[in-house]
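Collaborator request, handled under Task 6.
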Amino acid sequence: MNYFDLHCDTIAECWKQGKDLWDNDLHLCLKRGAAYHPWFQCFAVWIPDELRGEEAYRYYEAVYRELLRQEQLHSDKLKICRCASDFQEVQPSGKCGALFTVEGGAALGGKVERVARLKACGVKAVTLTWNASCEIGDGAEVVHPKGLTPFGREVVRELERNRIAVDVSHASEPLFWDVAEQIEGPFLATHSDSRKLCGSLRNLTDEQFCTIRDRGGVVGVTFVRRFLDDSWQAGIEDVMRHIEHFLALGGENTVAIGGDFDGTDLPDGMTGVESVEALAECLLRHNYPETLVQAIFFDNAYRFFTSL
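Structure tokens returned to the collaborator:
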């Protein structure tokens, strides 16, 4: 099957744990993912909230070097997609198309000129915050949150100018609405579920989802247990519930997958990247058309990133 995943933390775990991306005991490896063809995977560098300034920027660079190292080690299995021709090359090649993304705008170290460095590295999307505050604004778990800072507004302008997608997963509600007001084009939430079904502040309200939908963006339904069910007891059927809810909001061209492999505990019935096909088959068994399943698991995300 075709697969496009908007978020995983695997490359940072490879760097921290000394794992090989081809074959490992993490949620995701190239060997187990090779069943998907074509397969595009967003590899995020997550910036922990305790890292700020130059320390955060050095962390970003270290994980970027790890992705380059893995590409060199496995050049027959992995290709970083930096431009349209890279996407086209990966399609028939059998390689995993890697999109480098940033989870936490603190990676800039407070310097807007570093957006150009992200562009040079081939970064395709930036999650503006993680859960706490950074130079850009407030994350989803900040008490009495505010929106974009003046620096954050500069960053959003530069990201859009450089055709790097703005990601509002982890954003506080004020920050979300500041982005929606400021940005001219589409934006996305790489790994967020429905707050209607699970009350986590990390999830999207129906209004937020519809705003992303109306702007031509995409939302990656994620496999994080605590975003799937308030009890934190979740199974593969709960992932399907969130997909169904977003589809009921007219999200046929908006819903995608953002699993968060190696960044979370997976729901019952899922062990890693090899489980994605079982989720797709679950939807097919519930009489979802193959064309719609293809849109959710590949087409919507592919269209979004190839139109940047």
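The cover message to the collaborator said: "Residues 3-306 form a domain with the TIM Barrel fold (CATH 3.20.20.140). The longest strand covers residues 39-46. Please let us know whether this matches your experimental observations."
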